[in-house]
Amino acid sequence: MALADQVPLTSGFSASSTGAQVLAAKELAGKVAIVTGGYSGIGLEAVRALAAKGVRVIVPVRDRAKADPALAALAGTVEAGDMDLGDLRSVHRFADQMSATLPRLDLLINNAGIMACPETRIGPGWEAQFGTNHLGHMALTVRLMGLLQRTGGARVVALSSTGHKISGIRWDDIHFQSQPYDKWQAYGQSKTANALFANALSRRLQASGGQAFAVHPGGIFTPLQRHLPLQEQVRLGWLNEDGTPSALAQSGFKTTEQGCATSLWAATSPALAGKPGVYCEDCDIARPTEVGSPFARYRGVEAHACDDEAAERLWALSERILEGA
To answer: I need a labelling partner for 76 at 20 to 30 A (CA). Which of 1, 45, 231, 263 fits?
Structure first.
């Protein structure tokens, strides 16, 4: 699960593939999935695609006012349960309820996340992006571990991002308590954490035949950008001054249907058997970043996100943080 393991396959899919196309030939009826963030953006598209294949999908919900209308068309095939990733008691209640009532859990897609938000503290003072994107999902996954292991062959998908290139783990100041807060550094750290989490989790699922993978879904316009003002998105090259998608976005960004595809591919592809913990993009295993390439900012995976030692260090540190919360 090091950088040397980042060797693309011939998956038969691409950046333009949709979630429905990825699942078209899969027999998934009777499977059970939990998808966090499954009521907006690419999470909702993943839920739709899974439900269409006969998967029983449970969506943890923080905001019923937003979730209920979004999931209304899927009533009868998709269930919702109350959970807030920033509240450990809420996470534990949801996970315990799932463990007590679900017969199995084949797929856990940790899709929810926040990006580049103003400095916010959650829980016992955690920086919100690390706390929500990584710690909340780790708490959920660990609490569901017994169910995942009993199912056998379960898969966990952690939504990372090319944003991991911005920052590795800030081991001496994870929560920005000593240094000034930087929203992009915080986001990058949380996305590196997601990749390292999948790496470490794979070793803990191995005995039951389970696997975990990290996924970069691609650039997509979703509610993830809600904290970014127009002018910042213009500077990033995503929008024009009038708020319309830029030429870069039109040529490189994905639709939400395409954005969920890599998560669903990682969750179901037999081609990934025996390749636990790898980082995926565009429905394939990602290559290491090509230094000097004009696409290095947008494609590939950095060594710091594929480091076994760092993954185990983060796992141990996160356990201590969660135990002390």
So the answer is: 263
CATH number of the domain where residue 90 is located: 3.40.50.720
Reply yes or no on whether 39 is catalytic. Answer: no
Phi then psi for residue 56, to 5 deg, are -80, 115
Confidence of residue 112 (pLDDT cuts 50, 70, 90): very high
What is the pLDDT, as a whole number, of residue 240? 67
69-84, pLDDT tens digit by residue? 999 999 888 999 999 9
3-state secondary structure of 78: strand
Task: For residue 170, give every residue at least 6 positions away whose Cβ sits within 8 Å of its Cβ, in sequence order, or none.
Answer: 176, 185, 189
- Active-site hit among 39, 187, 279, 298: 187
Q: Which residues pair with 284 in a beta bridge?
A: 281
The answer to whether residue 234 sits within a structural domain is no
Residue 242 forms part of a structural domain: no
Measuring CA to CA, which residue among 285, 121, 77 is closest to residue 198? Answer: 285
Predicted structure pTM score: 0.92
pLDDT band with cut points at 50, 70 and 90 for residue 49: very high
